[in-house]
Write a structure and sequence with these properties.
The complex is a heterodimer of chains A (509) and B (133).
Chain A lengths: L1 E3 L8 E9 L3 H9 L7 E4 L8 H4 L4 E5 L5 H4 L14 E2 L4 H4 L14 H14 L9 H7 L13 E8 L5 H11 L3 E5 L2 E7 L6 E7 L5 E11 L3 H10 L22 E11 L16 E7 L1 H7 L4 E8 H4 L5 H4 L5 H21 L5 E9 L7 E8 L5 E7 L3 H21 L2 E5 L16 E2 L30 E3 L14 H18 L1
Parallel strand pairs in A: 1-7, 2-3, 2-10, 3-7, 4-16, 10-19
Antiparallel strand pairs in A: 5-6, 6-12, 8-9, 9-10, 11-14, 11-17, 11-18, 12-13, 13-14, 15-16
Helix pairs in contact in A: 1-7, 1-14, 5-14
Chain B lengths: L3 H14 L11 H7 L3 H6 L2 H14 L6 H8 L14 H18 L2 E4 L2 E4 H12 L3
Antiparallel strand pairs in B: 1-2
Classes of the chains: A alpha/beta (509), B mainly alpha (133).
């Protein structure tokens, strides 16, 4: 069922069993799980079914610290959320990503990788991936021409990625959601405030507004906030009428530990003989690809963060490409996307014309160390619905840079040991004492952290079931719950985590 | 990259060492020429670049940066195996190649001008930068 909240009589009361705030990958994945149940699920989406610039503007905000993309264009604000322009890269987190690592301060999830395995498998269906298989041998049996630079060993291994078509949740699941009797989708229903009971131990209602001037109230037994990491934190912080620091923020953690993936060109791979590196190539929307990853043992030995290096771009092409941080500079996500597509389309044409190539760019994606100073706060400026805008302070540490350097050095050693070529680190990595970042440093548009998971309320906003500490019926869904960022893009894992949350909620109904 | 010049140089060095040696002292110009060919780098870079790498290695490890010292370091390995001016080109190639592989396997590497190199081949580049063209 679909209702446009602009068309409802002002001050309508909407009631249900579960209220999901946000209809992106997390929110829609949860909603799909409640179809054909006897429960009434209210799914609130701030935008409509199409891009709407007035709604998109609600995501605008300032950034400080490490140069970042415009907040206004780094997430999409309509039904389907940012899957409306995601590239479909999927892989699983590694077991080490969930562990407490003494060299990575604030690491350690209250759940393990195996806790997510059954949900990863289910998440595969949501994003239309192939079999839940990430072992190189499996894929080599299907296609023997997928030859690694060197076999998996105790230093470097080949981490497999699968590619979603990519699934645009807005297109793929609109009809299913709209036709579902148990799902009540409200578009143009921006949550602007969350109200709790007197002692702030349970949520009573949320207030929604839209630019048509309408305001409504939503009441439910359980509330799930699934608006993306920055907006999840913003909504908790802005709901500060009953709790001065914001809901769930007694210990000043909401908004902190914002994480991105550092995605940055890092070195050159020079091969003695031309090689197409088919295993490491990328075809948009299908198949698999490998990236070079560092084993758990070596991460521990060298006390580095987890990261992988891709080999998708011939050096001849990548050296002329503008960095992502410069390409994606427009506040209008449509314009930034157009520039990105043009860049990759041009590069793809050049790559097809390239023969006997033997040099590639190593492009490293590394997790950002959890850092309480890297955070989302509220600005004094408010959006058109009266909610304080988000401010992002993105702050990196020397550990990220040391890790990138070591990851590339270790890959260089393996390339050398295999006798296939040599690796040359980029200039910014030459000086071990230099902790500065080059101008082309960028992220992957992957927002994580801000409502991190911990069994200890003093160390996290939500518990292992994604429930906000101290509030009995409020849950956070999505990558805001991540404790660490791992190397892969967050979408597959956030869907798995959301499905796990959904299963947990069902046990409570 | 422009590497034609260096490949010619490499071929000349290999040919030179195949000549019979009358004088087998440790410091031997002909042996030096054979040792100063980092084979993999020669497939990737030109001679000028390799010499720059060699000089940079010399700045990084100044105590090694003289012909005699580097030659001494290159003609023996941790297994106490050695080569000399009497060694055939094949023996020298095999010896150096094995040492480079062992370096990479054991993490005995050095980053010079950004290149992740085995210490052995970095020394080869240093030797190239020191011997007369």
């Amino acid at each position: 069922m679909h209702i446009d909240a602009k068309e409802l009589p002002n001050n309508s009361l909407i009631e249900g069993d579960v209220c999901i705030i946000g209809a992106g990958a997390a929110g829609i994945s949860i909603a799909l799980e409640w179809i054909n149940t006897p429960f009434k699920v209210i799914l609130l989406e701030g935008g409509g079914f199409e891009y709407d610039d007035k709604v998109q503007d609600l995501y605008d905000g300032k950034t400080t610290g490490q140069h970042y993309y415009p907040l206004r264009s780094s997430r999409l604000h309509y039904f389907g959320g940012t899957t409306g322009h995601w590239a479909g890269f999927c892989s699983t987190f590694d077991p080490i990503d969930f562990k407490k690592r003494d060299w990575v301060e604030h690491s350690g999830w209250p759940i393990k990788r195996e806790d997510l395995d059954p949900f990863y498998k289910r998440a595969h269906k949501n994003v239309e991936l192939g079999p839940y298989e990430y072992d190189l041998n499996y894929w080599q049996k299907k296609d023997p021409s997928l030859i690694p630079l060197f076999p998996d060993a105790d230093v470097v291994w080949n981490k497999i990625w699968q590619f979603s078509p990519p699934t645009r949740f807005g297109e793929k699941y609109k009809d299913t959601i709209v036709k579902a009797k148990s799902i009540h989708l409200y578009t143009y229903a921006n949550v602007v405030d969350i109200s709790a009971n007197e002692n702030v131990s349970a949520i009573k209602k949320v207030t929604v507004k839209n630019y048509a001037g309408k305001q409504h109230t939503v009441q439910a037994k359980h509330f799930i906030i699934a608006c993306c990491s920055i907006q999840n934190a913003r909504l908790l912080l802005a709901s500060n009428k009953q709790a001065a620091k914001g809901l769930g923020n007694d210990n000043d953690i909401v908004g902190r530990y914002f994480m991105e993936h550092l995605e940055i060109k890092s070195s050159e791979l020079w091969l003695a003989k031309p090689n197409e590196l088919k295993l490491y190539g990328f075809t948009f929307g299908k198949g698999i690809s490998a990236e070079l990853a560092i084993t758990e043992k070596k991460q521990e030995e060298f006390k580095i963060l987890n990261g992988t290096a891709s080999l998708r771009s011939p050096l001849e092409i990548s050296k002329n490409m503008k960095p992502m941080i410069d390409i994606w500079s427009d506040k209008d996500p449509r314009k930034s996307l157009d520039r990105l597509i043009k860049t990759f389309t041009d590069a793809g044409k050049q790559q097809q014309a390239l023969v006997n190539n033997r040099s590639y760019e190593l492009f490293t994606r590394v997790e950002q160390a959890p850092n309480p100073s890297s955070r989302v706060t509220l600005d004094t400026e408010k959006d058109s619905l009266g909610v304080p805008r988000a401010m992002l302070h993105w702050e990196l540490t020397p550990l990220e840079k040391r890790s990138i350097r070591k990851i590339n050095e270790l890959i260089g050693q393996q390339v050398g040991a295999a006798g296939i070529g040599r690796v040359r680190l980029m200039d910014y990595l030459h000086d071990e004492k230099d902790n500065s970042w080059p101008s082309f440093t960028g992220g992957g548009w992957h927002h994580m952290g801000t409502t991190r998971m911990s069994d200890d309320p003093k160390k996290g906003v939500v518990n292992a079931n994604c429930k906000v500490h101290g509030i009995s019926n409020l849950y956070m869904a999505g990558s805001s719950c991540y404790v660490t960022a791992a190397a892969p893009n967050p979408t597959l894992t956030l869907i798995a985590l959301s499905l796990r949350l959904s299963d947990h909620l069902k046990t409570l109904m | 990259m422009k590497r034609r010049t260096f490949i010619v140089l490499s071929a000349m060095a290999t040919a030179t060492v195949s000549m019979p040696f009358l004088n087998c002292t440790a410091h031997n110009p002909q042996l030096d020429k054979a040792l100063s060919v980092p084979e993999m780098l020669s497939h990737i870079c030109n001679a000028k670049t390799i010499k720059e790498i060699g000089k940079a290695y010399g700045n990084k490890v100044p105590e090694e940066y003289n012909i005699k010292k580097i030659e001494d370091l290159l003609v023996s390995n941790s297994d106490n195996n050695t080569i000399s001016a009497k060694s055939t080109p094949g023996e020298i190639h095999t010896f150096i190649d094995k040492n480079i592989h062992t370096d990479f396997e054991s993490g005995k590497t050095v980053i010079v001008n950004g290149w992740v190199l085995s210490v052995t081949e970095a020394r080869q580049a240093a030797l190239l930068s020191l011997i007369p063209s």
